[in-house]
Amino acid sequence: MPSMHPLISEIFSESSISLTDLQDCSNGIYLHKSTGQKYFTKVQFDIEQMKGEIEGLKEMYKTAGNTGLIPKVLGFKINQDKKESVMVTQYFELNSSSSSKEEFQKELGFKLSKMHNLPPEKEEKGKDKDKSNYNNNEKDKFGFYVNTHCGITKQNNEFTENWEEFFRDKRLGDLINRIEDSTINKEWEIMKEKTIPILLRSFNPPPKPVVLHGDLWSGNKGFDLISKSVVIFDPACYFGHNEADLGITHMFGGFTKDFYDSYHSIHPKSKPYYEERQKLYELYHHLNHTLMFGGGYKSGTLSIMRNLNDWAKDKEIP
After folding, report:
1. Which residues cross the membrane (predicted)?
2. What is the pTM of this model?
3. Most buried among 59, 81, 118, 234, using CB within 10 Å?
């Protein structure tokens, strides 16, 4: 077997997996010959980004439970000079062709709703090493205890008590400040003064901080041929309003009516203004793509902002 990164070797050893029982399947994939389980390994120089991914996977795994939706983390380590990090997780053998099928969509909606169903402070008993890293003062707040990245964009996860304030300032406003576009800024002044208060200040059921995937586009879901389960991966986690996770699902397609019906059978749509609130949540990802790529994404961003601001003109702030 080719030489294995020493930190990856440590993770396997600490998990009581003998290195002689591992078969290198190339591309960072290892097969545990005794159990048939495959593991995915990755080495990364951006330690902060990898740590955010790992902590997000752990939090999602806690709330998703044994549904098979989330890859289990075997370990994460940083080398002594803090210039490199490694991780080992459960490996998914993906079949993307199944993702449009009715059964897949229903299962994904149901399992995502279950992941959103438990509060972030809910922990597995007797697993101290997997305990959440946020303290009791943060358990009812919106945000996350480490930085996470949506694409290459570092997210502002500073804990905030109020959902309106968090999504306005730490999500939309943070990106708009970085984009520095006068046309977007003009619409933003209207949006933050009226449109956002109308959509986020008062609705039912009221928002609770549950763990979100944060970047749930069609490329971050699939069907695992090993476990025979729908799966999601590559998160940009934070604790937020559950429906915010659905925003990007409208942006690129790949999610059918079966998915939404299944999801909302567990979490009924918030009222009033569910559809408009979904457009606001989708706006975050248009802004992020405008920041990362520019070009045509700016026109999509402005279209959503203008449509929402026009819609809000004759509405009253609660």
Report:
1. none
2. 0.93
3. 59
Tens digits of residue pLDDT in 263-291: 999 999 999 999 999 999 999 999 999 99
Beta bridge partners of 39: 30, 90
| Number of structural domains the chain divides into | 2
Q: How far apart are CA 73 and CA 58, in angstroms?
A: 7
Residues 9 and 114 both lie in one domain = no
Catalogue the long-range contacts made by 234-237 (C-beta closer than 8 Å, 24 or more residues apart). 234/53, 235/53, 235/56, 235/57, 235/60, 235/148, 236/52, 236/56, 236/148, 236/149, 236/150, 236/151, 236/155, 237/52, 237/55, 237/56, 237/57, 237/59, 237/60, 237/144, 237/148, 237/211, 237/212, 237/213
Q: What is the CATH number of the domain that holds 37?
A: 3.30.200.20
Domain that holds residue 204: 94-122+138-318
291 and 161 in a common domain: yes
Of 21, 169, 181, 215, the catalytic one is 215
Q: How far apart are CA 279 and CA 277, in angstroms?
A: 5
Domain match, 23 and 116 both: no
